[in-house]
Amino acid sequence: MVKPREVSTEIANVLVTPLWEDIGWMSAMDLYLARDADVTTELLDEHLACNGLARDAWERLTFLRSALTPDHRPQLEEALEATQRAGLVELLAWTCDTSKQFTAALKRGDAGKSLQPAIDYASRRFAGEPAVAKKLWSRAKSFATTAKGGKWQMAGEQAWRALFVVDTRESADAMKEMVAATFEYTNFGSKERICAAAAKRARFLKHGTRCVPPLVEAMTESYTNEEITHSAVALRGAAVRKPLEDKWKQYTRYQMDNDPARTALGGLLAIAPKSKAYQDAAKKVLPKLLKEKQNVGWDDVGLVNGLVMGIERGKVRALYPLLEKVAKWKITGSPYDNHGKERAELAAELLRRRARRALDAR
User: Fold this and answer.
1) Within-domain flag for 81
2) Is the pLDDT confidence value at 238 over 70?
């Protein structure tokens, strides 16, 4: 029998566990949940593996977030003053109902300047307050806009992540600027991933249409990813059909098996699901991609994902037999991929779940 968790015991564990000296792992897990919410509502083992995180740590965090009350605030303030642990800032926020209460608690806990990233991220709890959302964007903006250059200013990273996991007007602006700054090819793994994440998040935000300009611009580039294409399609619909068709014609003039054509094809399946030409193309392209099962890269899984999203969004029933194969596509990630073996395997698990969901919805 598993012993029930108790708040006092879990807080004591926080005070002696080095993991809680930083909040990067917390925001990373929350980001995964927000990013992949269209496929799963739970944190998968594959998510945890990307950051080398034990499930017990995540369960401790989720328990404390749900169990903490204002009565625990004095204890956390005292612990923060004594240890200056970033993780305590996150917990302290969950004992507060307003940013005013949070600010006062931080003052009593004598929160130092080194805790600003943790304060930024914890402030998402109060993003419903217009002043808080605006302040988060002012702190996150340099992180988003300097991603394009050689000197990426990281100070606002946690503020940007805070806006990623909430849904405000400022969230849309943060995704827009990040896509604009990172869609150009750099072979810089972290920039490619954050671009894909921001592009995907855009289509699920209330103010997602604010992200349209960079998405449409990026969609036609040869090196664009599937999330950019599908967000442009989701937010602009038939308006992007011609640019996508032009891209398709350009890159299939001599051959069909190239990445720009594949990403365009996924979007076209969503926009023009009855087109026999695009269906026939998918019947040729997708089986070839599925033959690869060893040392598969994150980008390669993305190519399959783009086609599957097109089939799902367009409800292209003629291609559902291909989804049956995708649902069984087990791969091992490439240890040589600049995104890491674990991220490819996470992407593949999410892809299989997407395929199964589409099949179950028939």
Assistant:
1) yes
2) yes
